[in-house]
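Extended Data, panel c. Modelled sequence:
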Amino acid sequence: MEVPVIDLFAGPGGLGEGFSAFVSSFEKRINFKIVLSIEKDLHAHSTLTLRSFFRQFPRGEVPGDYYDFIKGKINLIELYKRWPDQAQKAMNEAWLAELGEGPGAVPFEIVDKRIKEALGGREDWLLVGGPPCQAYSIAGRSRRKEKFLDEKKDERVGLYKQYLRILAVHNPVVFVMENVKGLLSARTKRNSVFAKMLADLRDPVGAVLSEQFVDGADLKCPGYRVYSLVAPPAGFDTEGNPVFKHEDFIIKSEKYGIPQARHRVILLGIRKDIDFNPRILEMRDEVPISHVLNGLPKIRSIVSRSQDSDKDWRAAIEKINCTNIFSKIEKDVAEEIIKQLKKIDSVQYPVGGDYFKYDKVTSRYRPDWFVDPNIKGGCNHSSRGHMESDLVRYFFAACFAKVKNRSPKLEDFPNSILPAHKNVKDGVEGKKFSDRFRVQLWNKPCKTITSHISKDGHYYIHPDPTQCRSFTVREAARIQTFPDNYYFCGPRTAQFVQVGNAVPPLLANQIAEIVSDIFESIRMGRIWEKERDCQKCYK
C-alpha cells in the first residue's frame, strides 16, 4: 500500500526523503510516495526535482546518466532530455510556488487544484512540512531585539496558517509538522504562539474561519489530536485531546541516532475520527561525527585573498610560529601544535570540488544509507577559502580541541591571534560570542547545523588540524544524514542554506515507521469492515 504524501515548505526535501526511503516490514506493507512537494526557493526546488527524478527509478536501477551528471559529464538539461518520462514526473511532483498571501504567492484555488490532482481522489494521505522558522528562532528574535512577534510586520509568523488552511480544506489523515525549538518561547502581544498553534491544529476549520481564509460551507474536517513523538501523553482532556507539556514536543536528534545535537519541535497530528494512540521513537546510542566524516576524502582549505597552492597554504598555517603564542599557551597545546605542524609539512590533500574522483568513500555508521559506490568519488565536497589569519586560528583551535576535548573559547586564544572585531573584548570576558571559533569534536555529535553555515565556517571547524578548514557541504549533509547520492543544486552558499534548513532524513525515516503503524491500522480496519459486510451477505 502506497500512502500519498504532500510536502509543504519542502526545502531540499529532508522530510520527504525520510518517508520515501522507508521500507516497511513484510507484515506492514506500508510505503510512502511523495506526490507533491511545494517550495519557493529556486535552488532548493532544483534539488527537489532532481531527487524526485532519482526516485522515479527502482532501488538499484538509477541510470548511469544520473552519475554522469554528478561527475559533471552532462548537465541537468541533458540528463532530463535523455529520460523525458521520469523527468516530467519529477517536474510534476516538485512545484516551484510560494504559499501565503503576499504579492508573489499562488492563489488558494490554484494550490487546492494542484493538491487534488496530485492526490487523484485518495483520501488516506499524509501532509508533512515545516513552515519557515526564522521568525520563531531565539537567535533571530535576539538579533531583531524583539520581545513580541508581530504578524503584520513579519508574514513568516503567520505562514503556518497556510498549513492550517490545507488541513481544513483537504483533511489528511495524518500530518507531521516541524519547527524550531524557539517556537515554544515565542509570543505575540496577545498570547503564546505555540499554545495558539496547538489550539489551531486541533481545530483547523475554526482557525481558518476566524481568519476568513475560506468559505466554510464545505469544510468538514473533524480536527486533530496532536501527539509528541518522544513522550507518552500524561492523560486526555475532556475533549479527548492528549495532554503534554510543551517541552514534550522537542525532539533531541542526538538521542535518536543522528550525529548532531539538533533540537526541533515536531508535531504528529492524527485526525479525530481515527482511533489510534501512536507509539514514540526508540532512543538510540549517540553517533559521534567521526563515524560519518572519517570515511570522506581528506581535503585542505584554500588560501583566500592571496595566491593559493600547497606551498602557500602551508606557509599561511606555519605563520603561527611568528605569532608569539608558545609562551602564552599551556605546554600540552604547544606540543600538539608542533606535532601537527610537522604533519602539515608532508600532507598533500586536494581542495575538493563539486565532484572529484575518489575510490575509498566509506562510513562507519550506516554505510547502507550513506555510501553509493556508483559515485566513485565525492560530490558537493569542495573546501572554502579562508583568510590567512583565520587559517592560523582554525589550526590553533583544532589543536586545542584535540588536547582538551573541548572547543576553545576566545579567552583561551593568545591575544596575538585574536580577531580585530569590535566585540572580541566581550567575548574574551565571556559576555557574548565567546565561542566565535567552534571546533566540532570527533567523539561527540555535532552542534546544530544551521543555515548560518552559509555565511562563514567559524562555528563548524573541522577537528582534523591537518585539513585546517570548516566543513564542506557534503560533510554538513552527512551530519544531517543525507545520502551521498543526494546532490544539492545551486551555488555553494545556496547548498549550505538548503542543508542547514533541512530535517535530517534518517530522523524522518524513523518517524515514518510510527506513521506507517497508523495507516496499517486504517488499512486493517477497512479490510475488517469489508469482511464483516461479506459475512452479512452470507447470512
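The chain has two domains: 2-287+502-531, 290-495. This feature is highlighted in the accompanying rendering.
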